[in-house]
Design a protein that fits this description.
Blueprint (H helix, E strand, L loop, with lengths): L8 E4 L2 E4 L3 E2 L15 H13 L4 E3 L8 H10 L6 E6 L1 E3 L5 E3 L3 H15 L4 E7 L15 H12 L3 E7 L3 H10 L2 E7 L8 H9 L3 E5 L11 H10 L3 H12 L12 H9 L7 H7 L5
Parallel strand pairs: 3-4, 4-5, 5-8, 8-9, 9-10, 10-11
Antiparallel strand pairs: 1-2, 6-7
Keywords: Oxidoreductase
InterPro entries: AKR (IPR020471), Aldo-Keto_reductase (IPR050791), NAD(P)_OxRdtase_dom_sf (IPR036812), NADP_OxRdtase_dom (IPR023210)
Protein name: Oxidoreductase
Length: about 290
């Protein structure tokens, strides 16, 4: 059944998925490094997500590293009915630093590592993560032809089913599309951090999903008196309102809020049913100034 999936549905790489998915990053230890504080709870989060109708999971071998992929494999393999999206383009050093690695050889090694740790013969969707900038999470203009072309070759070899891009601008999306089909774009976007509206609209017209990372603010949780006021008036949490706002923006937006708590997972999934009246939407639209 797909008519009651959290947040409604969207077709991602040929499969109907719930618009409210799950991002596995927070299952790793502090700083997304090392094992989880509570492994049993981490496994319970993943299994409960499936019970609640979540069938789109976002992960990466550099979360941990390897931790979230190994947890996904233990909890959910063989992933029947699930869409597992992973990312390449970075690795971790011994101290937990984030190191860009985007040469064709490095990307092939990362793909092979994701295959091993997820325990699959082909990866559903692989996002090439580029960008960075001063804040580490914003698009940086420039060609992605070489790294994306390398992933396109791996797709032709059957190791990857579909491709996406992450931390990119509209020109980079177009360049990637000239090399191979793009089924998803993942960028930093939330009620307080905007700027991708034209890109989102363009992708929607093409039937391509847009997945905002850090929908709840990331390492720095969203802080807004306006958000708090709207949430209080609606009898909801600020997090639920922030997620509901994103779902309202465009039908191709897929959410991947993360948590290491089953209780918080249930709260996030419940946000998919929250209705935002017009006056609340108008107030929320003022947050980003």
């Amino acid at each position: 059944m797909t008519d009651n999936l959290p947040g409604g549905t969207f077709t991602l790489a040929g499969r109907t998925v719930a618009r409210l998915g799950y991002g596995a990053m927070q299952l790793a230890g502090p700083g997304v490094f090392g094992p989880p504080n509570d492994r049993d709870e981490a496994l319970a989060v993943l299994r409960t997500a499936v019970e609640l109708g979540v069938n789109h999971f976002d992960t990466a071998d550099f979360y941990g590293p390897y931790v979230t992929n190994e947890l996904l494999r233990e909890a959910l393999a063989p992933y029947d009915g699930l869409k597992i999206v992973t990312k390449v383009g970075a690795v971790r050093d011994d101290k937990g630093g984030w190191i860009h690695e985007r040469s064709p050889e490095q990307l092939r090694e990362q793909v092979e590592s994701n295959l091993r740790n997820l325990g699959v013969e082909a990866l559903d969707v692989v996002n090439l993560r580029v960008g960075g900038g001063e804040d580490g999470h914003s698009p940086v203009p420039g060609s992605l032809a070489e790294p994306f072309g390398a992933l396109a070759e791996l797709r032709q070899e059957g190791k990857i089913k579909e491709l996406g891009v992450s931390v990119v601008d509209a020109e980079q999306v177009a360049q990637a599309q000239s090399i191979a089909p793009v089924v998803t774009v993942q960028n930093w976007y939330n009620v307080a951090h905007r700027g991708d509206e034209k890109l989102i609209e363009s992708l929607a017209a093409q039937g391509i999903s847009y997945v905002p990372f850090w929908p709840l603010g990331g390492f720095s949780p969203l802080q807004s008196s306006t958000l708090d006021d709207v949430a209080a008036r609606l009898g909801a949490s600020p997090k639920a309102v922030a997620l509901a706002w994103l779902l309202h923006q465009s039908p191709n937006i897929l959410l991947i809020p993360g948590t290491s708590s089953v209780a918080h997972l249930r709260e996030n999934v419940a946000a998919a049913d929250l209705e935002l009246p017009a006056d609340a939407l108008a107030e929320l639209d003022t947050i980003a100034g």
